[in-house]
Amino acid sequence: MPSLDQALRAALAARENLLGELHAQSTDCYRLFHGSQEGAPGLTVDRYGPQLLVQSFHQPLEASDLHSIVSNVETYLGQPLLLVYNDRSKGNSRIDRDPALFQADDAALEDLVGREWGLNYRVRGRHAGQDPLLFLDLRNARGWVKANSAGKSVLNLFAYTCGVGLCAAAGGAREVTNLDFAQGNLVVGRENGALNPELPTMQFIQSDYFPAIRQWADLPISSRRGQKLPNYPRLQPRQFDLVFLDPPAWAKSAFGTVDLLRDYQSLLKPALLATAEGGTLVCCNNLAKVEMSEWRAQVLRCAEKLGRPVQDCQVIAPAPDFPSHDARPPLKTLILQL
Ligand SMILES: C[S@@+](CC[C@H](N)C(=O)[O-])C[C@H]1O[C@@H](n2cnc3c(N)ncnc32)[C@H](O)[C@@H]1O
Questions:
Q1: pLDDT tens, 103-113?
Q2: At the N or C end, where does the chain have fewer CB atoms within 10 A?
Q3: Integer CA distances (angstroms), 320 to 19, 71, 271, in order
């Protein structure tokens, strides 16, 4: 088994060409070390613009390993970065658990800006949520949206911090609607909009997925066992030219359960109905244990049964900063032409 130092050097060397391409396209947010595939399961090292974000998921790092990561990366990139180390192996990852091991500088915890596909994104090393504000494995899908949104009405479902919506706006979309039930995530989405003042403004809808998509799809909203439903925004039935569906692996609300393993159809069906004839639905499944071939077959079958057969189906794979030696990346993305 190679040492962490050796594994990290190999990972950096393997990214030589990719980083050249990313820098040329104004991207400075990427994964530098993907531990599960590159020799240290439970460890990730990401660059977010001026920040270096190290995260451990299984056990805390030794101080010597943390120092070795920083010096290897800074030497390789030829510039200093602001280090944030979040140990996610125990409950709260938003603190310096062992100040003797590491204490983040104030400058590293300030609001920073990272770039991807020429757009600015808010970077915050610690915030109310656990995950960074931009999911890096979705970069290629965001790039596809930017290249394929001109003149379209775009709906970004489970929008999080609205990166997909921002790419649609930058790609010339006629209108962009971002939907998420978490107000805090949409606030960051608005910040991302403000960080790119040359772009047209986007719409933000704070709502649970199920009532919103079912209204757009002109389907009834049913309560479970006759229970009274919480309030939800009223929306008119309509369709969008490009719909992007990237749900979390599992989430439960009063309106329904998001379950990417057992019930993708409940998410997919109304999203298909809310996509215009001749339009495009991009859908994702980030659950590692779901096989691409089985999921794709399920998606195509569901569209067929609904009378919205898929005319063409393409895959968007994550970029090589998320290597996958068995060619089965956890994040699977399909472009469905309807
Ligand atoms: C995996 S993230 C989606 C990532 C996002 N598509 C992106 O581009 O980065 C999951 C998001 O779904 C939202 N969410 C989870 N359950 C939801 C529900 N029932 N209705 C609306 N939003 C939901 C969360 O607030 C979170 O922002």
A1: 999 999 999 99
A2: N
A3: 10, 23, 30
